[in-house]
Design goal:
Blueprint: E1 2-10, H1 14-22, H2 24-28, E2 34-37, E3 44-49, E4 52-62, E5 66-73, E6 84-93, E7 96-106, H3 111-129
Antiparallel strand pairs: 1-7, 2-3, 3-4, 4-5, 5-6, 6-7
């Protein structure tokens, strides 16, 4: 299994950015068209992205510093529901928040597509996290 890592700086406090990882309104401001979230350990993590049902559960929630969810796609044989793990670590900086993302447990064949997705969505989080409008999302997976 492989791992993908990336990071982005956001001109907002960790408390503000954290809300974009644990609320449906916050999540859909930067990723997905629908979200049903229960940010407690074992709670539901469901986000629909470009017609794909991403499903898992919250594994760890430590306001406002860390969110860990299981991640997979409903109906997928290569990355089934909850098969991988996404961790967001939020660190206060002078200018706001450093968000470090680690997506682990990915089959090697899934890394390019997920790297492509995170390269699209993390900048949208930076816009939304500062109160901006990330706009309509026309992103599509590489295989669509």
């Amino acid at each position: 299994m492989a791992e993908f890592r990336d990071a982005i700086d956001i001109a907002a406090s960790p408390e503000t950015v954290f809300q974009y990882l644990v609320t449906a309104e916050g999540m859909t401001a930067w990723m997905g068209q629908y979200a049903e979230l229960d940010p407690t350990p074992g709670g539901r993590f469901a986000v629909d992205i470009a017609g794909h049902a991403i499903r898992g559960e919250y594994l760890h929630v430590e306001p406002p510093r860390r969110v860990v969810v299981s991640w997979g796609m409903a109906g997928s044989d290569t990355l089934p529901v909850g098969a991988s793990r996404v961790e967001f670590t939020l660190t206060a900086t002078r200018a706001g928040t450093r968000v470090e993302l680690t997506h682990s447990g990915l089959p090697d064949a899934e890394v390019p597509g997920h790297a492509y997705g995170w390269a699209h969505f993390l900048p949208r989080l930076a816009v939304a996290g500062t109160g901006g409008d990330a706009g309509d999302d026309d992103w599509r997976p590489l295989d669509d």
